[in-house]
Amino acid sequence: MDVNCALKLSLLFSSLLVASAGNFYQDVDIMWGDGRAKILNSGNLITLSLDKASGSGFQSKNEFLLGMFHMQLKLVPGNSAGTVTSFYLRSQGSTWDEIDLEFLGNLSGDPYVVHTNVYTKGKGDREQQFYLWFDPTADFHTYSILWNPGNIVLYVDGRPIREFKNLEGFGVPYPKTQSMRLYTTIWDAEDWATRGGLVKTDWTRAPFTASSTNFNYNACTWSNGVSSCSNSPANPWFSQSLDLTSQRQLKWVRKNYMIYNYCTDTKRFPQGLPLECSVINKKQQ
């Protein structure tokens, strides 16, 4: 897909989000940070800050069981090595489900890394990492999570970067029974985030601040064990999957910007790659 077409899709995607954006006072609770998280601009903006004492974060008031979620983020500028800004869904308990987009800070001038993972019943180890193809600190960009019965898709500005299909028929667990809240946080991960922990956080540059706006979702809310839209084929996202254009976009991202894929890491899994990797490889043959 050419650049002009990609730009048009990105602008269309963003305009749809702005038209139906929510309000942070109504949609989220600040969960930690002791004043480091601030709701501004009449509820249209949240800033999250990190210093040596603490990070900060917020969570959605609602719990969800399946949906389409969007957030616009502007990441920490300059030397942000050791910091992580996260946008993710997570359930509670020791056997939790989780869908992660984590943005790993960098030395000034280096590209940001997007660290992704999917947990089912407390088990993850499904990391894929990508470089971003733009400066995510210069302006807001839209990051999205599609979570439906058939697949999980992670998007950047409407462009898919990762797909995790429901392969329960092959014995692969899939997160679809536990309700999750949406979270956005900033925290210190200097022990692993930048070049495996080789580059430490420069605390003289603190506080490190990321911003969130235009939180938008179309999802099934979950309350007292009841879904607001149980089995809702009328919602387009409920059965949404990647069409041919989106599949080409995904291949473009994987070819040009993927830097780690657990499904090719035979050193990490000497006894054999995870089951879903084998299933995917067979399907692609």
UniProtKB/TrEMBL annotation:
Active site per UniProt: E98 (nucleophile), E102 (proton donor)
Superkingdom of source: Eukaryota
Pfam families for this protein: Glyco_hydro_16, XET_C
EC code(s) of this entry: 2.4.1.207
PTM per Swiss-Prot/TrEMBL: Contains at least one intrachain disulfide bond essential for its enzymatic activity.
GO cellular component: apoplast
UniProt-annotated location(s): Secreted, Cell wall; Secreted, Extracellular space, Apoplast
Top enzyme class: transferase
InterPro entries, A to Z: Beta-glucanase-like (IPR000757), Beta-glucanase/XTH (IPR044791), Beta_glucanase (IPR008264), ConA-like_dom_sf (IPR013320), GH16_AS (IPR008263), XET_C (IPR010713), XTH (IPR016455)
Signal sequence segment: 1-21
All copies of domain GH16, residue ranges: 18-212
Protein name as catalogued: Xyloglucan endotransglucosylase/hydrolase
Source organism of this protein record: Erythroxylum novogranatense
